[in-house]
Design a protein that fits this description.
iron-sulfur, metal-binding, mainly alpha, 4Fe4S_Fe_S_CS, globular, four-stranded parallel sheet, 4Fe-4S ferredoxin iron-sulfur binding domain protein, metal ion binding
Length: about 500
């Protein structure tokens, strides 16, 4: 269905330029919102709905209200077939848990309210309760409603009114907890996971589900390897790349980053690990994309992490050095949501240099003749689960291409919605059942049905956690699979 004149979104190609204006909106009166302040930069929506009497833009909320009003009521968010569209609607079958219904709730709240207290409207709490910020709506909705960012603004506004809950501070603050208090955090999680009394206490006091283990930090964080397997050719003939080791790879699964380092080195690249700028206030704390803060509505914290990233990569932006990430939600947040923090035009330049590992390898193979020496892997057909962000940003094509580098490798892709873990969503006591229902739609049955020695592939940290919890089986990042396939024999 073609949108009526004035009701469509501007071209997505214009989005970086619009967001990169650098406007900081966290001040009263910003955004033309009748005194209401917004925490994110909504300037990309400034011209939405102009000249369209039927756009239904709410009376308050300025450009944020315009972002809400892009919904054209196509009801694609009520699809239940293949794809990743709205997992909350898929498990409930209730239109009140669709993107369209959430838009209606925001419109009602913004029309009824005269200031930011509109965000205390209980209708919004009910509408957003099962939203997992999967980005499906931005990809599959004809109007590209970005409910993930709409939810972030809603949470930030809600925190301003009611304060930030303790559990939100704990989950959102993972980058700081792991960076500053790693040993204490690891001990606390280990004790909690092994004590029924502590799991029950955590559920009662903090709302952390007693039915699920919390991921434990690894015994040691990631450390750049001093030696990695290399083929017998001149060192680094393909130039330098930067490996962005996110919070979860650095502290929870350092073997993923180690494997990526080995793969890139074997492929002929000089690998440098991303480090904070020397002038950074916390030079020893690893860089972070800020996504845990965004998804929990802690926008100022997210903005601080974004500023750290930009400062660290300023020289790399000028040199156009490729920056390679491993966790889909982290790397793709830098490429997408960083625009919403109003950090200036450097965000657009940085985005052009950011690649997931599989994207970078596929690009180098297609455009620059990369050929990796890989050997066949034993075992039956693998099972591949795509992270929501891989699907929403079109990365699965690159994933399939790179898996095709492995001689004779075959796999099936699970046609599924969100895994249901969705960061901290599946850890929240009130959301545990919904989390598992999302996983049981297709993901967990497929993982249980796979032969015991079949490789299970999932690039998302939360996805791997959900798969292990629900099926008792471990899935692996594509970097580990590629490392195992490296042919290290002399050429």
């Amino acid at each position: 269905m073609e949108p009526a004149p004035g009701r469509h979104r501007p071209s997505r190609a214009l989005e970086p330029a619009l967001f990169a204006s650098g406007t900081h909106l966290a001040s009263p009166g910003a955004n033309g919102a009748r005194g209401m302040k917004t925490f994110l930069d909504w300037s990309a929506y400034d011209t939405y709905g102009i000249g369209d009497a039927y756009s239904g833009i709410p009376a308050t909320g300025g450009n944020y209200a315009k972002a809400v009003a892009v919904c054209m009521h196509s009801r694609d968010c009520r699809n239940t077939g293949k794809g990743v569209m709205c997992p909350s609607y898929r498990i409930t079958g209730d239109k009140d848990h669709s993107t369209e219904a959430r838009v209606a709730a925001f419109k009602a709240a913004l029309n009824d309210g005269t200031d930011a207290n509109a965000f205390a409207d209980p209708r919004l709490d009910a509408a957003m309760d099962l939203c997992v910020s999967c980005k499906a709506c931005k990809k599959e909705c004809p109007s590209a409603v970005d409910m993930t960012l709409i939810k972030t603004e809603y949470l930030a506004q809600r925190h301003e009114i009611k304060g930030v809950p303790r559990r939100t501070r704990l989950f959102g603050g993972v980058p700081e907890w792991t960076g500053r208090h790693r040993r204490l955090l690891r001990l606390a999680i280990m004790l909690r996971n092994r004590s029924r009394l502590l799991t029950q206490a955590a559920e009662k006091l903090l709302g952390i589900s007693a039915r699920r283990a919390i991921p434990e930090p690894a015994p040691r964080p990631y450390a750049e390897p001093s030696a990695v397997p290399t083929p017998a050719h001149a060192p680094a003939p393909r130039g330098e790349v930067i490996l962005f080791v996110d919070t979860f790879c650095h502290h929870f699964e350092p073997e993923v980053a180690e494997a990526a380092h080995a793969v890139l080195t074997h492929a002929g690249y000089s690998v440098r690990i991303a480090q904070p700028d020397p002038a950074d206030a916390e030079p020893d704390r690893p860089l972070c994309c800020g996504r845990t803060y965004l998804t929990t509505g802690m926008v100022e914290k997210a903005r601080g992490e974004g500023q750290r990233v930009l400062a660290a990569f300023r020289k790399e932006i000028a040199a156009q050095t490729p920056i390679i990430g491993l966790e889909p939600s982290c790397l793709l947040s830098l490429r997408d949501e960083l625009y919403s923090l109003g950090l200036g035009p450097e965000v657009g330049a940085l985005g052009k240099q950011l690649f997931l590992l599989e994207e970078f390898l596929a690009r180098e193979h297609q455009n620059k003749g990369l050929r990796m020496r890989l050997k066949p892997l034993p075992g039956p057909k693998a099972v591949l689960h795509g992270h929501c962000h891989q699907k929403a940003f079109g990365v699965m094509k690159a994933t399939r291409k790179v898996l095709g580098f492995i001689p004779g490798f075959s796999y099936d892709i699970v046609e599924t919605s969100c895994c249901g873990m969705a960061g901290s969503f599946g850890l929240e006591a009130e959301h545990y059942d919904a989390s598992m229902q999302m996983a049981e739609l297709a993901l967990l049955p497929a993982m249980r049905a796979a032969p015991q020695d079949a490789p299970l592939i999932a690039n998302g940290f939360s996805c791997r956690h959900q798969i292990e919890h629900g099926s008792g089986r471990k899935a692996r990042h594509i970097a580990l699979l590629l490392r195992d396939a490296l042919d290290l024999t002399p050429a």
